[in-house]
Amino acid sequence: MEEENWQSLLHERSINHRAILSQKFHDIKTKLHAVQTYRTGKHSVSHICRKYHISKASLMRWNKAYDGTKESLMEKSRRPHTPHPNSHTEFEIRKIINLIRRNPNIGLTELYTKLRHQIAYSRHYSSLYRVLVRLGYYRKESPISQKSTIRLS
User: Fold this and answer.
1) What is the pLDDT of residue 25?
2) With DSSP H G I counted as helix, E B as strand and the rest as coil, what are the percentages for the chain, rounded to 5?
3) Distance, CA of 79 to chain centre
4) How far apart are CA 95 and CA 70, in angstroms?
5) Less Cβ crowding at N or C end of the chain, within 10 Å?
6) Which residues contact 47 (CB under 8 A, 6 or more apart)?
7) Residue 120: pLDDT above 70?
8) Full 3-state SS string of 75-98
């Protein structure tokens, strides 16, 4: 009997250790069980943290967010609500697209110079390049694989 308990404990720990090593987020089930166990008051915080391999801060954060539904423990988006203050404005992007449309063979340096003169473009040269890559005007070249050559000698 003791042998079976030991093996099940070993199996449970090996699964949990694999989850820790893979640096994955805790699933909803783990969060739910941890919070429910904490709210029963039968176990100490340190016991719950050891059992579920979580920090006290995580347990308290989940407990604060938990409102009785599983959805309250789901991961929320970390995407910012507003764009970065230094990002290109819509006006600048429209101007870049218009200049390229009117001058399809324009180079990066010439485009940068025209933008500086026409709209007082104050961003760095490489920022313009990154915008052009994002808009699809420049493509990152994929590395060419070395083809084996057959020599007939």
Assistant:
1) 73
2) 60, 0, 40
3) 9
4) 47
5) C
6) none
7) yes
8) CCCCCCCCCCCCCCCHHHHHHHHH
